[in-house]
Each structure stands twice: as structure tokens, then as C-alpha cells.
Write a structure and sequence with these properties.
The protein is an alpha/beta fold. Helix content is about 30%, strand content about 20%. It has a seven-stranded mixed beta sheet with strand order 1-2-3-4-5-6-7. A five-stranded mixed beta sheet has the order 8-9-10-11-12. Bound molecules: zinc ion. Zinc ion (ZN) binds next to loops.
Length: about 270
Amino acid sequence: MLTQVARGVLVHTSEFCRSNAVVVQGADGVLVIDPGVLEGELTCLASDIRELGQPVAAGFSTHPHWDHLLWHRELGDAPRHITAVGEGTVRARLSDDGARARVATMLPPEFADRIPLDLLGLVTGLPADATEIPWDGPTIRIVEHQGHAPGHAALLIDDVGVLVAGDMLSDVLVPMLNLMGAPEPLDDYLAGLQLLENVARDVAVLIPGHGAVGGADDVRSRIDRDRAYVQALRADRDPSDPRVEAAEAGWEWVAGVHENQRRQLTGGS
Ligand SMILES: [Zn+2]
């Protein structure tokens, strides 16, 4: 079910990892950002969009991770965008014949048979210098950084003050660094947070990739909390972060994500 969070901006939250799919209404069609994960939810999203009376004009993936790269034929065959760097990563990791079988082994078993991989990663990179989404709708600024994944894009819908944060600023997930070969993952993440902070005063509604939608106050507090977490990782200090130490039922695995990051950054100790 789609819920309106601002004028012309609607969200569907998945049963899988509280993933947020975002629909933005344009002049002659909608933009679908990170459409979701489960088959039934993707078809439900397509049905809800049909009820809005607008076709899908374009899609956008905030970053090159599998759970943000899915699509469903019922959403149509509009162009699906990603940043240029994001496309390069998709090509490097997901363009070979064995890619879908490899991703299938990474899926959580309780969801695996409900996740359609047939249209995984069929995205096209925007020009490297693109600063806005090319479409006939409200201006959507691209805030690109390397913090969570190569070519990660947050999107700022200017006229309604909505920040689609991608996999940053979550109330349930700690910052997850790009530890797949980036030379300075901590600096990359802090630089990404700085870019978000630079636009924070324009934000009234925050939509994270996973977790609860927030308001203006949440933008400030989640930036501060994510920065404190990353700085604790850098110093190999206990982050004292409720997402690690007091996780909601069902989210206890986030402590394992934290421990894994700590171990990788400290060389395995
Ligand atoms: Zn991600």
C-alpha cells in the first residue's frame, strides 16, 4: 500500500528489511525510486500506480546493491537510471552469466523464493556530471557520494523538501560502509554525511532506504548519530548505539553487521 508523505510523494514499506519504495508524481507519469523486493509487493506497487492513473515514466536505483536494483514487468519498461559510477559497479559485479545465481545464494532464505531476480540490475547510468533526474516532473537533485556503495545517490525533491536518503540515515540500520575495496571507507561515509548535512535545512521529510520515514528533526539527529557511529568505528570505541545495543526484535543481526565492520577495519582483531 502506498502512503503519501508529501505532496506528490508516496512510499511503500516492504516486509523485507523495511525497504522503502518511493513514487514521485510528475506531469505525465511517476518516477519509481528503489521499487522494492518481494514479488507480491512489486505487483501491488504496480497496481497502486495504475490506480493513480499515471504510467511509470522512469525508475531510479539509489545504489548498486541487489535490493535496490529489482524491477517487475508490471511496472513497464520505462528507462531505469542509476549514477554513472553505480552503473559501472553493476556492470562489474552483475553483468556476467552467473550473476543472478550468485545473488540468489545471498538472499535471506525466508524470502528467497519471493524475490524475482529476472530483471535485476537492468539500469542505465546517467551522465557522470548529471545533477538532476532527467524527467518531466518536480526538480530532483542528485546528492552523490561513495559512502555506502560506489556512486550512491540521495535524491532531494526540492519543492516539497523530501530527502530520499538511500541506505543512509536509517533508524534501524547502523551506517554500513563500503568495505569492498574502497581505500578510505570511513572518510567516504563522513563525506556523504556532510553532503546530506549541507542540504538538511531544506528537508522536511526524510525517507531512508530502510526504516521509518522521519521529519526535519530526525534528519539532524540521524546525521549526528550516524556520524558518531562512524567516528566510534574509526577510534575502535564502543559506539553506544541503540541500533546495536537495544535493537528491536528481529533486528538483532545489526549487532553482527557492526561487529563485522569493526573487525574488518581493525584488521581482524
Ligand atoms: Zn545498500
